[in-house]
Design brief:
The protein is built from 11 helices and 9 strands. By secondary structure, it is α/β, with parallel strands linked by helices. It has one domain. Strands 2-1-3-5 form a 4-stranded mixed β-sheet. Strands 4-9-6 form a 3-stranded mixed β-sheet. Strands 7-8 form a two-stranded antiparallel ribbon. β1, α4 and β2 form a beta-alpha-beta unit. It is found in: Membrane.
């Protein structure tokens, strides 16, 4: 019996030892798996924390430099809010820019001395061939004008620091004639100009435009007008109603369809209406394809639908369509004479503040670069520069 008990005890011990060895081996084999799971858990935790930290830092960086550049380290003051940007360059995309530009005070009385400025917005491919003429035009009128230039993205301006055009090229996108990108560029110019709260009137010009009067006269003419200068005509035929597309319904009907000059002047109220529009512009983007031109139809149609009584229903920029074609006539060196320039401002009958006026145009186009020399010679006498 003792022998059997001993053998049973020895067998039991042997089995127990064997089970212990197997358990140890099992635990040892599971240890790498535990380590791997722990490593993956820590990695995941660090990744999540890193993502949140990046988002936090990105928001902290984005807000003061792009979206709400008026805020800076330190206290927020009214002077910081109303001070115009030192440089027109920024890192906002179009969605951010339009959103930022749509912000407007709801109280019309300004709690500070505000000198309203006239914003000149140049839409060009690159350089401004008449820059010397415009330099004469702006001379000695600092503080009551602003300049914004939209050129092709790859153009690098080289104006000296003494030039009024130095640092006035805004972030741009490619623009093609007759495409919706033209309307995008014009809205982009307006949005950039709206960032300066002192800009009250906005004039769109091209690189081939020239002034027909001195700065003082033009400033007074625009600032004292009860209307903004946007043409909005109900034109029949293929170049008017013929460009309408039924896909624009119900937001825009055929009876509301209008046409006007690409070159306009609007006040701040209408400029804000344009940049904040998310109802009509998407319709033009989708349905206004050649031979429909966004720049000729969107602005007149939208503004006449919403603010018809604020429009003078004419443009301030003279051009000659008498030769026919898709573009107005171009004038070179031999065309620029004293008599020619004298007749342009009053070449057509018009109303100014509901009264007949002898001056209907303040700008003219299209002029070739060769016209610069005679223009500079005649500017002091004819244009009062």
């Amino acid at each position: 019996m003792k022998v059997m008990v001993m053998e049973m005890e020895e067998g039991f011990k042997d089995n127990a030892a064997s089970r212990l060895t197997n358990q140890s081996r099992s635990l040892l084999s599971m240890r790498p798996l535990h380590i791997l799971l722990l490593f993956l858990f820590l990695t995941f935790g660090i990744s999540v924390a890193g993502i949140h930290m990046i988002q936090f830092l990105r928001i902290q960086h984005l807000a003061p430099t792009t979206l709400i550049s008026i805020y800076d380290h330190g206290s927020v003051t009214l002077e910081r809010f109303v001070r115009p940007p030192l440089n027109v360059w920024h890192t906002m995309n179009d969605s951010e820019l339009l959103w930022r530009a749509s912000m407007e005070p709801r109280i019309n009385v300004y709690p500070f001395k505000r000198v309203p400025k006239l914003a000149f917005m140049f839409l060009t491919k690159g350089s401004l061939p008449f820059a010397p003429l415009w330099e004469m035009f702006f001379k000695e009128h600092e503080g009551i004008y602003s300049i914004y230039v939209h050129a092709l993205p790859d153009y690098k301006s080289d104006y000296p620091m003494s030039s009024v055009f130095y640092g006035r090229y805004i972030p741009s996108q490619a623009v093609e004639w007759g495409e919706v990108s033209m309307g995008d560029a014009e809205r982009r110019l307006l949005a950039n100009a709206l960032l300066d709260i002192s800009n009250e009137w906005f004039v769109l010009l091209s690189e081939s435009c020239i002034p027909l009067r001195g700065f003082g006269f033009i400033y007074g003419y625009v600032s004292e007008s009860r209307y903004s200068f946007m043409g909005a005509y109900d034109e029949e035929g293929p170049d008017g109603r013929g460009r309408y597309r039924t896909g624009m319904e119900p937001e825009i009907s055929l009876s509301q369809w209008r046409k006007g000059s690409q070159w306009f002047e609007v006040n701040r109220k209408l400029a804000v209406e344009i940049v904040q529009d998310t109802t009509y512009y998407p319709k033009f983007r989708e349905f206004c394809k050649q031979p429909c031109y966004v720049d000729e139809h969107y602005f007149p149609t939208m503004l006449s639908m919403e603010h018809r009584i604020l429009l003078a229903n004419r443009t301030l920029t003279w051009k000659d369509w008498s030769r026919g074609g898709a573009h107005p006539a171009t004038f070179g060196k031999d065309d620029v004479t004293e008599d020619f320039l004298k007749k342009l401002p009053g070449s057509e009958a018009c109303l100014y503040n509901d009264q007949h006026s002898q001056v209907c145009y303040l700008f003219a186009r299209k002029f070739a670069p060769s016209a610069l020399e005679p223009l500079l010679q005649l500017a002091p006498k004819i244009l009062g520069l």
